[in-house]
Request: fold
Amino acid sequence: MPVKGRLDLDRFAEALANVGPRRLRAVDMTGIGEAFLHKGWDRALKMIRDRFPDATLSMNTNAILLDVDKFKRMLEIGIDNLTISLNGTSRERYRAINQADHFDTLVATIHEIEAYYRSQSHHPMQVVVQVLDTVNSPEEIATFLEWIGIADDSAVTFSVHPYGNWGGVIFNYSCSDCYPCIHLYVPEVSYEGDVYACCVAHAVHDKEFLIGNLFKDRFDDMYKGAVFQGLHEANMNGTIHKKAHLCSTCNH
Ligand code: SF4
Reply:
């Protein structure tokens, strides 16, 4: 029986037990949602690590709740990759992207983590701080990298990620030249098994993306169905922002 709400760890353990250990090569805790919001985040990750000792275990975080203690716990669990989504290169850019004012806190956290990690002799986890191109100019990125003062040979590295839609809020305009949008082909599944054609769609508000239900429909039929094909056609001819309200305000 699907349930709504916070992930129950007993159910999570049951779900893990249903996945053959040799079939899973990588677990990527990324996408919409923030793992540290769950009080049992570390127990969930430990369950994954114990069940899939050879899988690559990666995690993305906005780092608002990250601190050195959590970082140490991630090292104990055996996380392979950690990406910190700083995104902005200044307080103003960060605020414009995230509609929040955590830039200074995040920079302090990154410095604390980098200092701790530098003090260790072993660096099994790859740690990357990500900023976005396009919304930060090349000059702003270069200035930021110099300003933050973390050496090139540090175990904490920086990456400039191509700007794409990940559910943030940047500009409030619609852009018919933005399409086709690749996210239309990244489906999202709700607790009830409802399948939405776009990973940015909200399960309550964005029913125009609802293409079927995994408990009732075959995925192949959903893909060939009228709803998805209509969205696909509009995406291809650059009019999806007229068909789906979310696309008209989305910062793709
Ligand atoms: S809402 Fe529309 S524009 Fe935004 S990611 Fe989804 S398909 Fe793309």
